[in-house]
Every structure is written in C-alpha cells, then in structure tokens.
C-alpha cells in the first residue's frame, strides 16, 4: 500500500522571524499586466492586496470558462434536433456526436495545462476564448444544411473540444492566486461557474432554435448567439486579468507529477466524479428524448423548453459546496460519501426506468447530479493536499507549500482534469452500446454502480483510513 509520507522538501531559505514572514509585500508590475512577487500565503499581503486581485481574476476566469463549457456541450443539445431538421442519423452516430467533444476536450486539456506557465494566465485566457469562435461558427454553418456528411459533423463536433480544454488552463491559473486554506472554495467557484455553462446552454438553445425559426428549426442560431459573449470575454480578460510570474513552467515537476502514483489514483477518482457529471449532462437530453419523448420539451408560449438543463444546473451549484465541505472536513470523507450517494442514485435510476414515470426518473437524476457535483469539488480539493503532504508539508490541508510544489500541483490539477474528462466520452459510449446491444440502458447504468463502489473503496483505503492517507494527515 502506498503511503503519502515522504522526506520533507528542503526550503530555499528559512524565514528569519515570524514578523518578516508576515510583512506586507510590495508587488512589481510590468507591461502586459505581469505581476512579480505574488505570495498568497502571506496573510498580511492577502488581506491588504491579494484577495482583491485574486477575486477580480477569478470573476473573469469564471466567465471565460462558462463560455467554454457552453461551446463544449452544444452538440449534446443540437443532436436532439437533427432528425427533425432533416438529418438522417442512426443511434450510434448520434452518440458519437455527443461524445466526440468530450474526447477532444479531454485530450486538449493536456497541452492546455502548460499554456498558463508559457503565455501567462491573462494572455492564455484571451487566446483560449478567441479559439471558441472556431467551433461556434463551424457549428452554425454545418447544421444549416441537412446534406452535410456525417464525417464533417463529427469533425466540427471535435472542434467543440476547444471549450473543454479551457478548464485545465483556467484551474491551473487560479490555483496560483489563492492560498492553500482557500483553494477548495476558489477552485469550486471557478469550476462551478464553468459547469453552469452546460445548464445555460441546455436551457437557452432549445428556446432560441425554435423562437428564431420560421416554419423549420433555426439550428445555426445555436452557434451564432454566443459570439458576442465570446468577444466580451476576450476584451474583459484583456482589461481586467493579470499574469503571475510565479506561474512558471516546471516541466521537471510535471514529469514528477506524472510519475506520482497518487496523481493517477486521483485522476481515476475524478473520472468517477467529474466524468460522471459531464457524461450524464451530455446524454441527459438524449435519454429524456428516448425514454420520455412526451417530456422532451415543454411549450411555454412559442418557446420550447427542455428540463434537461436542471441536471447540469444542480450539479454545478453543488460543486463549490463540495469544495467548502472538503475545506472543513477533508476531501476524502466527502468524496467517500459522494460515491456512496452516486451509487444509490444510479440504482434509483435503474429502478425508475421500467416504471415509465418521468418525474421519478428526473428526481433520481437530480440526486445523482448533486452527488457528482459535490464529489467534483471534494475530489479536486484533495489534489493540493496530497501533493503538499507528499512534499513533507505539515498540516498539508491548510498550510501552503513551496513554489516548486505549487507548480507541480498546478500541473497535476490540469492533467487530472484531462483524465477525468474522458468520462464524458466513456459514459455516452457505454450507454450507446448498452442500448444497441440490449435494447435499453440498464446494463450501462449497472456498470456505473459497480465503478462507484470500486472508487469509494479506493478512496477509503488510500485516503480515509487513519495512519494511511498523507502520513496520518487529513486529506
């Protein structure tokens, strides 16, 4: 069994006195909104300057990531309308269009992890937001013609992965701005703001494609409507965000993170939490359309509203509370409870399918989304604690570590987010195979229950048991 205890990492220099450690910091600002001398762990600096600057950067990071998630999930909504718009697609092709953005986005998160150290957090936020124009315009063009080949549709769906990649760079950037004791809440807010994009897209797109149409659906509007907001995000990042010189590339540390067994274990747990959230969010509109076609959309005047947005909404809103609970009680305990709740919720889904009750089905999924959202926040909060403990930091749950460890942690945050996002590909594919092979989704959901039980056990064994996790520390 792997213990988290290691030999403490030597520090560059010991602080001469507590007063010196807590002395306020004078930041050096350079052209291009670069900041030198950032130290969020200094409580005097944090109270006088740091918190305000970090909050401003967090707000625009959330907005840019929010748009990234919208673009990432557009195809999961649009595919429901493709048959009515004249596209001839079978079930397998539809599930590929749903899962391809997650596959591409998860893969892009790997290089995106290293973009903040290379270009700066502000600069990369501008660039990554600008890249969102490509998939939105491409979608608007290709869904306007029912003769568009499936290969082209699949390629354009893959371009939506640009939106998924944003998460890794955004989270890596924000972790540099906040002290260890507040990372759970800050990372939870940043992630929740992005995750809300899924819900907003699922609510807005069905309304727009119907209300802006004449006799047929106006599917291109699903892409065009987001372009003005993307331009606002680019300009907002340019005017209001900062680059931290402390967020430098540490490729040796990144390689060390990849070699760390706990990084891969945490990545597996993140597949279970975030992968479930993004995977279920992607297939939820399709599941409702298949199982309960009469409830797929509701007409409110001339608007067509889908209740699928509720799943991503409650999952997103619960995520920061998962981070907050992890700040207080430890991420491992909260994550164990989340996996237990997810297993129960999935069993509930399986039991409701034969009953044909839409409202029980919806209730079961709401419970599942809340549990996965809380697990997202708690699992992600475990990462900086584990890496600080591995470096020999005492009280790693609340005490900051060296800059080297922070850079290694930032790399791990991005890489783990990349691996976890593959769940957004695996879940639609598993459900698609279950439907094609058995005629229903029961076997697919049963596999998810077994997976949650395995992940619960791993979390309990490695991070919850006394004397095992983090050298006896709270994870």
Can you summarize this structure?
This protein has 475 residues and is mainly α.
Question: What would your notes on this structure say?
Answer:
The protein is an all-alpha fold and 475 residues long. The protein has one domain (39-472): Growth Hormone, Chain: A. It has helices at 18-22, 43-81, 91-112, 115-119, 121-131, 133-142, 150-159, 161-177, 183-211, 221-224, 227-240, 251-259, 261-291, 309-329, 331-352, 358-390, 403-421, 423-438, 442-464, and strands spanning 28-30, 34-36, 243-244, 298-300, 303-305. The strands form 2 sheets. It has a 3-stranded mixed beta sheet. α3 packs antiparallel against α17 (403-421).
Layout of helices and strands:
Blueprint: H1 18-22, E1 28-30, E2 34-36, H2 43-81, H3 91-112, H4 115-119, H5 121-131, H6 133-142, H7 150-159, H8 161-177, H9 183-211, H10 221-224, H11 227-240, E3 243-244, H12 251-259, H13 261-291, E4 298-300, E5 303-305, H14 309-329, H15 331-352, H16 358-390, H17 403-421, H18 423-438, H19 442-464
Parallel strand pairs: 2-3
Antiparallel strand pairs: 1-2, 4-5
Helix pairs in contact: 2-3, 2-8, 2-9, 2-11, 2-13, 3-7, 3-8, 3-13, 3-17, 3-18, 5-8, 5-11, 6-7, 8-9, 8-17, 9-13, 9-14, 9-16, 12-17, 13-14, 13-16, 13-17, 13-18, 13-19, 14-15, 14-16, 15-16, 15-19, 16-17, 18-19
Output the keywords:
475 residues, mainly alpha, Growth Hormone, Chain: A, three-stranded mixed sheet, disordered N terminus
């Amino acid at each position: 069994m792997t213990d988290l205890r290691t030999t403490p990492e030597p520090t560059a220099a010991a602080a001469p006195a507590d007063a010196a450690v807590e002395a306020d910091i004078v930041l050096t600002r350079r052209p291009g909104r670069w900041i030198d001398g950032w130290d969020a762990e200094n409580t005097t600096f944090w109270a006088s300057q740091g918190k305000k600057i970090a909050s401003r950067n967090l707000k625009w990071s959330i907005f840019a990531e929010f748009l990234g998630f919208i673009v990432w999930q557009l195809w999961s909504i649009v595919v429901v309308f493709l048959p009515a718009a004249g596209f001839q697609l079978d079930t397998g092709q539809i599930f590929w269009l749903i899962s391809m953005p997650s596959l591409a986005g998860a893969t892009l998160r790997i290089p995106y992890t290293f973009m903040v150290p290379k270009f700066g957090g502000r600069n990369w936020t501008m660039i990554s937001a600008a890249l969102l124009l490509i998939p939105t315009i491409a979608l608007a063009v290709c869904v306007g013609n029912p003769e568009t080949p499936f290969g082209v549709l699949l390629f354009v769906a893959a371009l939506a992965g640009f939106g998924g990649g944003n998460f890794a760079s955004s989270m890596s950037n924000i972790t540099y701005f906040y002290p260890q004791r507040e990372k759970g809440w800050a990372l939870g807010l940043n992630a929740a703001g992005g995750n809300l994009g899924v819900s907003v897209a699922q609510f807005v797109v069905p309304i727009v494609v119907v209300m802006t149409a004449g006799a047929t659906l106006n599917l291109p509007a699903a892409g065009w409507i987001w372009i003005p907001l993307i331009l606002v995000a680019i300009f907002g990042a340019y005017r209001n965000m900062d680059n931290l010189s402390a967020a430098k590339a540490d490729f040796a540390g990144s390689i060390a993170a990849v070699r760390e067994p706990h990084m891969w274990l945490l990545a597996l747990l993140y597949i279970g939490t975030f992968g479930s959230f993004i995977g279920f969010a992607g297939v939820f509109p399709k599941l409702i359309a298949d199982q309960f076609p009469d409830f797929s959309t509701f007409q409110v005047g001339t608007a067509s509203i889908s209740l699928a947005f509720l799943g991503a909404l409650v999952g997103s809103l619960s995520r920061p509370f998962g981070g907050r609970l992890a700040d207080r009680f430890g991420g491992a305990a909260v994550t164990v409870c989340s996996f237990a709740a997810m297993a129960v919720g999935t069993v509930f889904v399986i039991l409701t399918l034969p009953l044909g009750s839409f409202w029980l089905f919806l209730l079961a999924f709401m419970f599942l989304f809340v549990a996965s959202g809380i697990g997202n926040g708690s699992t992600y909060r475990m990462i900086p604690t584990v890496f600080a403990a591995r470096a020999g930091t005492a009280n790693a749950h609340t005490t900051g570590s060296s800059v080297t460890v922070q850079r290694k942690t930032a790399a791990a945050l991005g890489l783990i987010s990349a691996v976890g996002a593959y769940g957004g590909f695996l879940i639609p594919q598993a459900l698609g195979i279950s439907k094609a092979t058995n005629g229903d989704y029961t076997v697919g959901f049963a596999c998810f229950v077994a997976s949650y039980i395995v992940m619960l056990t791993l979390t309990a064994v490695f991070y919850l048991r006394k004397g095992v996790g983090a050298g006896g520390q709270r994870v």
